[in-house]
Amino acid sequence: MKTFTHKTLYLTMLSLFASYSGATLAQEPPSDEDMETISITGVKDLNSLIPIESKSAFGLDKSLVETPRSVTDISSDLIEAYGLRSVDDLVRITPGAFTSSFFGIQGAMDIRGESADNYFRGFRRIANPGAFKTNIRGAKGLEVMRGPVSPLYGNGSVGGQLNYSPKSAKSDATKYFDEATGEIHLTLGTYDQKILAVEGGTPFMLGDKQAGVYIFAEAEDSGSYYDNYEPTNEIVQVALDVDLTDKTLMEFGFQYQTSDAIQVPGWNRVTQDLIDNGTYITGAPVAKNSDNPIGADRLLPQESGFISPFAPYFINSSFSGVGTFCSPGTADNSNYTYNAMLLSCPGVADGIENAYALSNPGIAQIDHKTTFIDDIDFADSTAFTAYLDFTTYLSDDMTWKNQFYYDYMDHTKFQSWGFTADYPGAEAMEFRSSLNFETFHDNATIQHITGISIRNEDLDYNHAYYDETFDFRDIIVGPTPDDRIDWAVDDPYEDATIIYDEDGNPTGIDGTVRRNYNEEQVSTMLNAGLFYIADITLESWSILLGARYDYFDVESEDQAISLLGIPFGDGEVHTDTESAFSYNVSVSYKMESGFVPYATYAESSSLSTNQLGGIIPSSVDNGEYLAESTLAELGIKYSSDDESLYAALAVFDQEKTDRIGQTSALVAVYSEGVEFEARAILNESFSLTATATHIETTEVSDGALAVINGADFAAQNGLEAYQVYGGRIAGNRSTFVGEGVELDRGGLPDNTMSLFLNYNKPLERGRVTASLGFGWADETYTDVLETILLPSYMVWTGSVGYVAENYRILLSVNNLFEEEYYTSADLFDSVVVKPSEGRTGSIMFSYSF
């Protein structure tokens, strides 16, 4: 498909913007006499298409068109109408968003080239590093916020946030109903998809207090387009609202979710021929599995490596037999090259081609259903979130809110390419007290929010990834004992004893040792914050000011030990205290025509953490657990008087420091781009949504882990790809590209766009609905080294339904024309890629009472 240039994208966005607003600008403004007789006849917004308010973006009662931020509002009606299944699907209606594959787990979005934080009712959740799927069907509404987080919601970087409002939040209206209400939803789909959901609420009196309760529950037990992938997911939400007094409201609720969806990276042994023609290189890895009855079906540490006192502790006291970690070479010691860089790759004295060559190599055609998956893989997640709010209306212009928040996650997983993770009982607790009030002056009205927050996090982060290897498995054949890496256990020495010499130094292992965790980071973080927001309205002008002061008290320890019992850390608990200041300034002007131009600048300080959100021990003493980010944004929004059209255009430039990959290396990320979205109700029958994005994201990280594409490495060293696929070739990024080199971030297309048309036809009883649209993404390279080019693609999605008074039926089809496309991986993007699903469909039956 022809690649769109950024100029074409700009023209498309501007022409769409102008076509909707031109008629409004062309008309002369009516006189006062005319205005007295004008009446606006609105068209019903049956899919909650046009966003009205955006209370979540800042905590202010401010319309979305007047909010000087890039915000996309997504209602549950829109989720259902478009057949959205996960956060990955949100990119269809969200500019600036494109989510790479986190091994098939749709837990979080990528916004403006960076992973976004997940929020629940305005409180930041524990990070979800491919742990479990975020269930968007359980949302009453979603807000995708691009740019800096509101000072009200805590410290955060300028990338973006996904704020989740649970369906149980309907309890705020339920207490005023005359009777109980509810719905039952049954979804059946291709590949044995089965989802059952029940929701309902009722008003009741708690003594003489008006109250309401609402419950949502869903269970999924489905197959998948991909062979041998069968995820399950259960979620329960409960919310209770009580009017304690005429002026005080209590809101209590929780969400409980369990999931067992394993990670699936997709295809390995990635070549350009594989992407272009589906040609896969076959062959078996080197035989390493012994007849040891312990772990007979997988490789134990003594089989995948050579445990030795001469191996440094930081490589786990073991020389890997399935991978080499290269360092910069010289004319005297280099044995390979890559991108004209001399390399010294240890552990392959007889040559990589002799250490890693596959046996019986060949080629075969592969389909998209065949992926890197194993029936011994497992992933179990339990997540629990609870809240308790007290809102007191002190006067018509003053509200005091006290909120308590708790978030819990327990997660463990194993993937047989060599990765084990365990996050036992991760907890976050937060208290927030805020005062919202208005003051009135001669020419100005000011809405203020001020308050304090206290947050505590207690996180245990355990990872095992040494000997992690992808290319040694022939995924057409499936897993074998020679390409499964053993999972990590809490006590790897149950059947082994470390041997020591007379001086107490470890010299070897007696018995069979199991896989250990090479990262065991235990951390706590206490954060106290003061915040203030002022929304100043001066006639048509609006000035939005936000500031936050944070105090951090952190504690972290590395408890991991190598296979010979040598600590990875220094045995110390590292502690530190630090303070940080964040602020944002916005100016906007509301024009009589309905346009609202704005400008925003923000500087933010946020935590720089491991994948779970915990403090890294080595970052404490040097203060690198805090990182700064900046944003400059210009935009213009438009909303018609009859609320039939909403459009927004934004140009941004942001810089931030983050952590990348399993090694949590520091990375400087630079993003700039243009975002456009429009939503229009054309008439009684038709409406549409449109988005377009042009974004350029680059990064600098000398210490990031680079796992090199085997076929590319082989070609540059006069070898065949099969000769290196039995192992992993890795090193620091600077080893392969040089130091301080700024590279395009891989897997993120520069240009994306979408267009969806909706149809509603009223009948004598009920109405017929339909939607049809596409999402398009430009071609992009899989990784920063630009080894594999992924083609552009256009995916069509459609639905047709019938809505009656008490029931509705909706048939949805995804990837209508079976477009074959590929998504780069969030990690190891040089060596794995996710093939697209083919056409899938589902039918949903809903009955309300």
From TrEMBL:
Domain of life: Bacteria
Keywords attached to this entry: Cell outer membrane, Ion transport, Iron, Iron transport, Membrane, Receptor, Signal, Transmembrane, Transmembrane beta strand, Transport
InterPro entries tied to this protein: Beta-barrel_TonB_sf, Plug_dom, Plug_dom_sf, TonB-dep_rcpt-like
Membrane topology category: Multi-pass membrane protein
Domain TonB-dependent receptor plug: 64-160
GO MF annotations in UniProt: siderophore uptake transmembrane transporter activity
Main location class: membrane
Protein's cellular compartments: Cell outer membrane
Key word Transmembrane present: yes
Family note: Belongs to the TonB-dependent receptor family.
Name of the featured protein: TonB-dependent receptor
Organism: Alteromonas stellipolaris
